[in-house]
Write a structure and sequence with these properties.
The complex is a heterodimer of chains A (370) and B (628). With 370 residues, chain A is an alpha+beta fold. Chain A contains eight helices and 20 strands. In chain A, a hairpin with a 2-residue loop joins strand 19 (353-359) and strand 20 (362-368). The chains are: A alpha+beta (370), B alpha+beta (628). At the A-B interface, helix 2, helix 3, helix 4 and strand 8 of A face helix 1, helix 2 and strand 8 of B.
Chain lengths: 370, 628
């Protein structure tokens, strides 16, 4: 956990992020150690021959596991369908109320996101929120009593462990057809940040590298489980190593995502304007007070790209540059120029403004002092 | 697998218990045994399966793919796109280390399946065909084949995986190579695996590999391979044995999925059998081919597993009414259209004078089957296809060969089994089966060539009423309770569909008589169609199609008895035939005669007759004498 953004991330979400991650790990660690020693003692005492069930079942089918997982997987359709950009991706249900976790991508960049459940029911999905740093998005469909993965029950794996991946790669499945299932093993759990420069991605945290070709077009957002169907990770976007032209097959451990997902669902990433209880300060920040000039606001959701930075302004002093894409303002996601302006209007002119920006596929934090 | 963990675990146990004599050994042995059993099971499955795997080398080893033997006498399945560039003859390596000559038998270009026959043995180890409808996602499976043409020592490559999807539908490339109801696997399927077998964990055959999803990552496995289900191939197997270029089926109607997941008829041809069975625009198709269908994709899946000409059960619903019918499927292609497409699929011949300079350094892999070329085309979002023979940048060039391009010398033993004829993959096998069916009928039913006099059948309808039919040389007459009917044999038969409502019973019986007397060789133009399901018969029936005096008729033979089960006479290609079902065969003067005939036309039963007396008059052009 040495990369910059991770530190920032943990600092920023001390309560949920780190807490939940530890929880996930401990759940895994304790029973393991316990069972090993306890079993050894039992064996010594009772002379019992104990065989790990997954070894005995080496030849048995995963069919029942697959059947249990499939109802939790969804197909997502949205923008794209041209220039080699597939208009579909994968996702999975994470609450009984119909929350869906998926990757944040151009596919979701539309008013009309369609989610197909395993039983063939189709819904227009609402985009609950996104975390561009983790490249995740949470959607909600108006379905109730659905099967779902509880992110807090996710397990961790080690190199050599079995992985099943569920995704609608290549859009093979439509309607009520179940998504594709691929099997493999965890090759290594490693830090994507170690490959900085090789992969064009915002996410720089740990990943499970899988020895199967799981990350095909349309697979992003799919679920990775262990051999028993317990959630392990989310399949990431297609990543091609720019240095050697090889494709990475990987899943992001759920522990890396759970805190942010909780925040998104709890509304902590929601624009403040949606919260009536909040009051704007009488003297607030604005783009002008900070010395930021954005690209012209021509679309309904123009991304807040910096066009220029005014000389001697706090933006210039903080090192903000033209072409920076502003993602967060004091931990609030800035989905468009309008939301950025709005968020700034909630920050007192006397307080500092922390921005997270994307520059050359790197995430940077800058603090603008009043 | 958690091997490191297991090892550590075992080590700890062993350390702890090292002083306790018997226990650790027993434990180690038990653990090992469970693992070894699983391992042995897998080894046994692979060993069993590998014996039937075939490495196909076409054109002297410059192209090829894989296949699998399904009968002891060497019939083997592969892909159409593997054998098509090879032509009539190919060589096949098996894991006994031997190379066998093989000839083409039949092809299904739409389904991308071909049947070939290996020569030289009658004790090949065939694969056992499983019921592929029992395959579940998550089941272990493995592919055996010849990826990248590695099997130069004829030892096949085995790649293990799981079933990733079942009942998948993959759009055709054009109208050929449609993969309906196929099995998706993450077992590595690479160029050269095409045509090879996909086995379940027991080593039983569940499909024929032939396609993958390939896009920007080049023509290698990306974890998504597709196998044609063996259950589909079982439907086509009889057709493939016919040596013909066989076609898939269409209903003559198009369907769409409604918002509430119902399959609705969105268009229908009035000339289709489905229309005559009552299907109309807006009806909901509930079940087809024995399967319920909820989406248009499911419908296309089921439709794709049936051959042209089969009759399959269909259930449709209109308002509150439900209809169960047997619907006759027509071909996807017009016959000429299919032939043209198969021709066009053959790559252009090399220019005379040898290779172009840039082709000299081709590696062997470049001569791989064009599956992946096709496949990637099929999977392109925009559906665009490069022109045949046009290589894609950064990808191996499609193989360029045609039967004529490579002058491979065909051994005499193989040449004897090849007979080229337009419309056929290999006419030799059509004649072979035509003769087999006829011989089988003859040995069961007796000799009818001597029954040259007029035939007189006397009996009564099961619902009551006398029936008399006289099948003479110049006329055929019938006397039903509804009145008399007459057939002039000197006139065109298609104009005479008497008795009214039968669809042409007298013509049908006349052709029945003619076939029995003269046999398929002299009947007219007769070919072996393959096997088709016949109502009331458990197994699909061997079918001969005969053309005589402007009408087409079909003769279906029960494979269990060899006897004729049914005759269908088509007075018009766009109309319902007269169907005659023969049963209650009894011996009479050394010949087996059907004593019951059910006659159907369209949706109705015209007559169900029990014959009390069947007489064959002496071969004299005179009125038959009354039997004593």
């Amino acid at each position: 956990m040495t990369s910059d953004w991770r530190l920032q991330h943990e600092l920023r979400f001390p309560s949920c992020q780190i807490g939940s991650e530890r929880q996930v790990r401990q759940e895994r660690r304790i029973p393991r150690l316990f069972s090993r020693w306890a079993l050894c003692m039992l064996l010594a005492a009772l002379s019992l021959a104990v065989v790990r069930p997954d070894r005995v079942a080496a030849q048995t089918s995963f069919a029942d596991v697959v059947d249990a997982v499939q109802p939790k997987i969804v197909k997502i359709y949205g923008a794209g369908g041209f220039a080699g950009l597939e208009a579909y991706q994968s996702g999975f249900l994470i609450s009984a109320e119909g929350h869906v976790l998926t990757v944040w991508s151009y596919v979701l960049d539309t008013e009309f996101i369609t989610v197909s459940l395993d039983d063939g029911r189709k819904f227009q999905a609402e985009l609950v929120g996104t975390d561009p740093r983790l490249e995740i998005a949470v959607l909600k469909v108006p379905a109730e009593q659905v099967a779902f993965f509880n992110l807090h029950d996710a397990v961790e794996l080690e190199a050599g462990d079995r992985v099943l991946t569920f995704s609608n790669l290549f859009g093979v499945a439509t309607g009520n057809e179940p998504v594709s299932v691929l099997h493999g093993s965890v090759a290594v759990k490693t830090d994507l940040a170690a490959r900085r420069g090789a992969f064009a991605t915002n996410y720089k945290g740990p990943v499970y590298v899988v020895d199967a070709i799981t990350n095909n077009p349309g697979a992003a957002g799919g679920a990775a489980t262990d051999g028993q169907g317990r959630l392990v990770g989310m399949l990431g976007k297609e990543l091609k190593n720019s240095l050697n032209d090889t494709w990475l097959n990987y899943a992001v451990p759920i522990g890396e995502l759970v805190g942010s997902v909780d925040d998104i669902i709890a509304g902590r990433f929601r624009p403040r304007s949606e919260d009536d209880s909040l009051k704007k300060p009488t003297d607030a920040h604005s783009l002008a007070t900070l010395g930021i000039v954005l690209l012209p606001n021509v679309l309904s959701k123009t991304p807040p790209f910096v066009d220029s930075v005014l000389p001697t302004s706090s933006a210039e002093k903080a090192g903000l540059r033209p072409d920076d894409l502003i993602l967060f303002v004091n931990d609030r996601v800035a989905t468009s120029s309008d939301t950025l302006r709005d968020e700034l209007s909630y920050i007192d002119r006397l307080d500092p403004v922390r921005l997270i920006v994307e520059r050359d596929k790197e995430l940077l934090e800058v603090e603008l002092l009043p | 697998m958690k091997s490191p963990c297991i090892c550590g675990f075992t080590a700890i146990v062993l350390t702890l218990l090292s002083g306790l004599a018997v226990v650790p050994r027993a434990l180690a042995a038990d653990v090992a045994q469970a693992v070894l059993d699983a391992e042995q099971q897998r080894i046994a499955a692979i060993e069993k399966a590998s014996k039937s795997a075939v490495a196909i080398f076409a054109n002297g080893g410059r192209g090829g793919g894989s296949g699998v033997v399904i009968t002891p006498d060497g019939y083997a399945l592969t892909n159409f796109h593997v054998v098509q560039p090879a032509g009539d003859y190919m060589q096949c390596g098996m894991n006994d280390g031997r190379l066998y000559d093989a000839v083409i038998v039949g092809i299904d270009p739409t389904g991308d399946v071909a049947l070939i026959k290996l020569l030289g043995r009658d004790d090949f180890t065939p694969a056992t065909m499983a019921d592929s409808d029992g395959v579940r996602v998550g089941d272990w499976c493995f592919a055996v084949g010849n990826p990248f043409l590695l099997a130069t020592n004829f030892q096949p490559t085995v790649t293990f995986g799981i079933v990733s999807g079942v009942h998948r539908y993959q759009e055709p490339a054009g109208t050929l190579l449609e993969y309906a109801d196929c099995i998706q696997t993450d077992a590595s399927i690479n160029p050269g695996n095409s045509g090879g077998p996909l086995f379940n964990a027991n080593g039983d055959l569940i499909g024929i590999n032939g396609r993958g999803s390939f896009e920007k990552r080049g023509r290698v496995n990306v974890g998504v391979g597709y196998a044609i289900s063996i259950n589909q191939i079982k439907h086509f197997l009889g057709y493939l044995h016919s040596g013909r270029i066989v076609d898939h089926a269409t209903l003559g109607a198009t369907v769409s999925t409604s918002d509430d997941n119902r399959v609705i008829v969105s268009d229908i041809l009035e000339s289709s059998d489905a229309y005559r069975r009552g299907l109309r625009y807006g009806d909901q198709i509930v079940a087809f081919g024995g399967r319920t269908v909820d989406t248009a994709n499911e419908f296309k899946n089921v439709l794709g597993i049936f051959p042209r000409g089969w009759r399959v059960p269909m259930t449709y619903r209109r308002d509150d009414q439900q209809f169960d019918v047997l619907v006759r499927l027509t071909g996807v292609h017009a016959r000429e259209e299919l032939l043209e497409k198969v021709q066009r699929a053959v790559p252009a011949e090399e220019p005379p004078g040898g290779k172009k300079p840039d082709q000299d350094d081709e590696s062997k892999e470049d001569d791989q089957p064009r599956d992946d070329e096709k496949d990637s085309d099929a999977d392109k979002p925009d559906g665009s296809q490069p022109k045949p023979g046009q290589p894609k940048p950064g990808q191996p060039r499609p193989a360029r060969r045609s039967p004529a391009a490579q002058q491979v010398k065909v051994p005499e033993a193989a040449a004897k089994l090849i007979e080229q004829r337009r419309g056929y993959a290999n006419y030799y096998f059509n004649q072979l089966n035509r003769d087999r069916v006829w011989k089988s009928f003859g040995s069961s039913a007796g000799e009818f060539s001597t029954a040259t006099g007029p035939w007189k059948l006397t009996g009564e309808l099961t619902i009551g009423g006398d029936v008399e039919i006289l099948l003479g040389d110049e006329t055929a007459t019938a006397l039903f309770p509804g009145g008399p009917a007459n057939l002039e044999l000197s006139k065109d038969l298609d104009e005479q569909t008497a008795p009214e409502g039968s669809g042409g019973l007298l013509v049908g019986l006349h052709l029945w008589q003619r076939m029995l007397r003269v046999g398929p060789a002299q009947f007219g133009d007769v070919y072996y169609l393959g096997t088709v399901p016949v109502p009331g018969k458990e197994l699909p029936c061997d079918t001969l199609v005969g053309s005589y005096n402007v009408v087409e008729s079909r003769f279906m033979f029960d494979p269990e008895t060899g006897l004729l089960a049914s005759v269908e006479m088509y007075a018009s290609p766009d109309g319902d035939p007269c169907e005659i079902y023969f049963s209650d065969y009894r011996e009479m003067e050394g010949r087996q005669w059907p004593h019951r005939m059910e006659v159907r036309h369209g949706n109705d039963v015209f007559a169900d007759v029990q014959w009390k007396k069947i007489e064959v008059a002496p071969a004299v052009p005179a009125k038959p004498a009354d039997a004593s």
